[in-house]
Amino acid sequence: MTILAIHGGAGGDGEWRGLTSLDPERIHCMNHVLTSIGEALESGIIDALEAVTQAVETMEDEPLFNAGIGSVLDENGTVTMDASIMNGADGAAGSVVNVRRIRHPIRAANCILKQGWPVMLNSEAADEFAIRNGVEEVEPTWLVTELRTKQWNLWKEKNARPGATDEDDSVLDHDLEGMGTVGAVALDSEGNVAAATSTGGMTGKPNGRIGDTPIIGAGTWADEHIAVSCTGVGEAFIRTCGAHRLATTHNSGLGLDKACDDLLSAVEPIGGRGGVIAVTARGEVATPFQTMLMYRGVWKHGKITIGIGPNDVDLDSMD
Ligand code: ASP
């Protein structure tokens, strides 16, 4: 059995207000990821680790998600990106923090994982390592989109707290598009699972801020039983060791859905509403969230489901 699940970030309060004019593009991207990478995973051309890498790379290339091109801007108006990846079978992991000059942070994290040591690299050294290992180099300004610049200008004008315009933003659709971190979890035909997560963080984040996304055990985790990728206000996922907490509660006998609920109720009181995707080596998959929405999709047995608000999207009506 093979499974691929992806997310494109969680956020927002209140009632679901329906799809916006930009959502078809995001749905198209998620559908493409699930179809092409799901099939390659099922046919055994790629394993779980490569599937999550390629899934996240493709979403990093979609400017409407908050990773790679289209990442949100920090307090200085610059894109700084974080990513991490973990392989369940051997616990190998790789992570980059605060990269600015590469197109695919998740490929850089994958290169670190494959090299074996160290696990994390930061800033200029991480960019240099990635470029030396064949990750595509880009100008920092190439990563900045008009939409994110407008969002940052609004954040600046309002003198808002970091991330405020991510949830209250008249510039972008859904009023919360600073969210949009991307992630993937997969189960391959060998029974191995892997997880990957990539983000630009939060609009206006302080220079040097590190969220949960590049921290193994906070935003990303995989072991021989389960793979997990989280999204939401990162500090709460760091403080709860979110992804690892979910794995531990699941692996000690709690059902997958209950283990996800346990994580989401642990982050909520400390300001960490969000969502999570998880896949188990037994072939279970979960994509819960406690926000207004979470971009998410699952490929299982060749069947694709995609959702944004509470219900799945009717893909037949999409085009
Ligand atoms: N967790 C990410 C961070 O705190 C943001 C997100 O998932 O939306 O950097």
Q: What's the short story on this structure?
A:
This protein has 319 residues and is of the alpha+beta class. 31% of the residues lie in helices and 22% in strands. The strands form 2 sheets. Strands 4-3-2-6-5-1-11-12 form an 8-stranded mixed beta sheet. Strands 7-8-9-10 form a 4-stranded antiparallel beta sheet.
Q: Would you kindly provide a written description of the structure presented here, covering whatever features stand out?
A:
The chain is of the alpha+beta class. It has one domain: Glutamine Phosphoribosylpyrophosphate, subunit 1, domain 1 (4-Layer Sandwich), CATH 3.60.20. Helices cover 31% and strands 22% of the residues. It contains 9 helices and 12 strands. The protein has an 8-stranded mixed β-sheet with strand order 4-3-2-6-5-1-11-12. Strands 7-8-9-10 form a 4-stranded antiparallel β-sheet. Strand 7 (220-222) and strand 8 form a beta hairpin. Helix 3 crosses helix 4. The protein is globular, with a radius of gyration of 17 Å. The two termini are 29 Å apart. The model has no long low-confidence stretch (mean pLDDT 93).
Which structural class do the helices and strands define?
A: alpha+beta
Radius of gyration: 17 Å
Question: Using DSSP, what is the number of strands?
Answer: 12
Fraction of residues in helices?
25-40%
The main pleated sheet reads as:
8 strands, mixed
Question: Key terms for this structure?
Answer:
319 residues, alpha+beta, Glutamine Phosphoribosylpyrophosphate, subunit 1, domain 1, eight-stranded mixed β-sheet, four-stranded antiparallel β-sheet, 12 strands, 22% strand, globular, binds aspartic acid
